[in-house]
Amino acid sequence: MGSTLAEIKLTLTKNLSLPNGCAIAYGGAYKEQQQAFKELLTILVSTILLVFIVILFLFRKIKVALAIIDVAILGVAGSLLSLFITGIPLNVGSYTGIIMIVGIIGENAIFTYRQYQDSDAALTHLQKIEFAIAPPLRPN
Predict the structure, then answer these.
(1) Whole domain around residue 67: which residue ranges?
(2) CA–CA separation, 44 vs 66, rounded Å?
(3) Where are the alpha helices (DSSP H) in the chain?
(4) How does pLDDT run across 34-47, given as a tens digit for each residue?
(5) 26: left (phi over 0), alpha (psi -120 to 50) or beta
(6) Is the dihedral of CA 58, 120, 104, 139 positive or negative?
(7) Contact at 8 Å (CB) between 29 and 1?
(8) Which residue has better confidence, 26 or 122?
(9) Total structural domains in the chain?
(10) 52-89 residue pLDDT tens
(11) Closest by alpha carbon to 1, among 28, 40, 38?
């Protein structure tokens, strides 16, 4: 719908000159879609902030919370890049999936960092990282 409406707008701009005080308003499904996108963007930003707050309360380290949120934002960017590369338009379903990705990244980061913290103090930093990421990689 977005590309079709962009083409309509371009055609009307080229071929139609409106008198002063007149304007074209686009409504219907397009208007509803735009409203839904605005609301989903608000939800996405709220999700990122809430994940940040939860991580901050859990670990009480701003660097850890910022690092995890950076990873979540990279996940969002990767999702948008994947949609662009595959030519799939951003729609409500893909937007919902992107919001879910932020939660999944946050959840996995919490468990991984907790596992890192609970590892044996005698281990090196690299061994602690290997220990923290190993449980999710083990087959059930």
Answers:
(1) 2-137
(2) 16
(3) 2-15, 28-59, 62-86, 92-117, 125-137
(4) 888 899 999 999 99
(5) beta
(6) negative
(7) yes
(8) 122
(9) 1
(10) 999 999 999 999 999 999 999 999 999 999 999 999 88
(11) 28
Looking at residue 102, its amino acid is V
117/69 Cα distance (integer angstroms): 19
What is the distance between the alpha carbons of residues 117 and 14, in angstroms, rounded to a whole number?
62
pLDDT tens by residue, 109-126: 988 899 888 888 888 989
Mean per-residue pLDDT of the chain: 86
Distant-in-sequence, close-in-space partners of 23: CB < 8 Å, separation ≥ 6: none
Token pair of 19 as six digits:
């008198």
Indicate if the alpha-carbon torsion angle 86, 107, 109, 46 is positive or negative: positive
Side chain identity at residue 50, one-letter code: L
Extract the tokens encoding 29: 């499904």
Residue type, 59: F
Q: Which pair of structure tokens corresponds to residue 122?
A: 């005698």
